[in-house]
Amino acid sequence: MASTGSAAPGAATAVPLTITAGSGGPPGRARPPRHLADLRPADRRAAAEDLGHQGFRADQLSRHYFARLTDEPAEMTDLPARLRDGLAAALLPRLLTAERELSCDRGMTRKTLWRGFDGAYVESVLMRYPDRVTMCVSSQAGCGMACPFCATGQAGLTRNLSTAEIVAQVVAGARALADGKVPGGRGRISNIVFMGMGEPLANYSNVLAAVRRMTDRVPDGLGISQRAVTVSTVGMVPAIGRLAGEQLSVRLAVSLHAPDDDLRDELVPVNRRWKVAEVLDAAWQYAAATGRRVSIEYAMIRAVNDQAWRAEALADLLSGHLAHVNLIPLNPTPGSRWTASDPQVAREFEGRLAARGIPVTVRDTRGTQIDGACGQLAASSRPGAPPAGGRAG
Ligand code: SAH
């Protein structure tokens, strides 16, 4: 309730970056600069050598970035002073600039608006709970899936994020926690959810590499448990199959929102390509391959998908499978004609699933005051609207 929305315009300092200078391409077309976190551990030494350095410099940089959570040359005192700036600029370029920070829940929920090298905006949200810290990350600037109840879906896709841009959101959160900047004392990130902007499986290879960087052992990566990472998808069936073959133990979340194709075609337009039955088949294959319960996401939308018969239809689909339903009260988005289900109706829906033996919980809606909850991430200061603090992009 106590919203303490504080804006810190232009809080971060970024190393100015120019890549393919003068290429003059339209914004969003150039690729983000290469970063150590884009590279597999095995390729990092070669990258350092290509730059004329000794291979072990890459190991030192990995330790700075993934263990000490820094990309500041001045802090890299184990590197000769004359090499620091060059190495950091070449292998640890600052990819994202914090344009604005908003917090609520007494600082336990923090949303950061990031500006990319090309002016693209993305957001990440850190949520601290008594027993864990969850980081919600973006995988794309915007989203091409066009779900009508989701703010990100309204703006369309700007571009995919690079692996390192995804990882950088987590590193920034981890650094804030390590520095004691989040109320509750020093801490670490325990969970990651790909539930920020974008459809992670539409940016498959960069997302997969980001999962590896997040979960590889320190200092190759951030050392977060694979089991604590959730990849959430609208239901891109071939990509779910591919993910099932990666020998990972990350959790899969499927944004179902309706048990019937008629309604799901409208709520999740990609359903016109891959139907409910195909999506769930892929989900059960994922569960069989990984042994992990699939999370079924269901936004409760008043008088749209919250009827008793739809609860029963959903139970029919899930019964006997390794699934858990997350009911999410619809979060308001600008211009949407829909609202959240009546709490009594939502409870009844939950009760019907539970009575059929389906594990079900109602997701908390952290961050609604700062538009940081599911479906509210729209990166409001995009080019065209003057960003907070009036900085030019
Ligand atoms: N593209 C991915 C991940 C991003 S959205 C996906 O769709 O799964 C993360 C979750 O928030 C999804 O389940 C999504 O359907 C849900 N969501 C989107 N808009 C919402 C809203 N307005 N209220 C509640 N949940 C919403």
Structural commentary:
This protein has 393 residues and is α/β, with parallel strands linked by helices. Helix content is 31%, strand content 17%. The strands form 2 sheets. It has a 10-stranded mixed beta sheet with strand order 1-2-3-4-7-8-9-10-11-12, covered by helices on one side. Strand 11, helix 11 and strand 12 form a beta-alpha-beta unit. The longest helix is centred in the middle third of the chain and has 16 residues. 47% of the residues are buried. The N terminus and C terminus are likely disordered. The structure holds S-adenosyl-L-homocysteine. S-adenosyl-L-homocysteine binds next to strand 8 and strand 10.
Quick structural overview:
With about 400 residues, this protein is of the alpha/beta class. The protein has eleven helices and twelve strands.
The overall average pLDDT, rounded, is 89
Present as ligands are: S-adenosyl-L-homocysteine
Give the tally of β-strands: 12
Low-confidence stretches at least 5 residues in length (pLDDT < 50)?
1-28, 382-393
The helix content is 25-40%
**How much β-strand is present in the residues?**
15-25%
Order of helices and strands: HHHEEEEEHEHEHEHEHHEHEHE
Strand order of the largest sheet: 1-2-3-4-7-8-9-10-11-12
Net shape: elongated
Number of helix segments?
Answer: 11
Calculate Rg over CA atoms: 21 Å
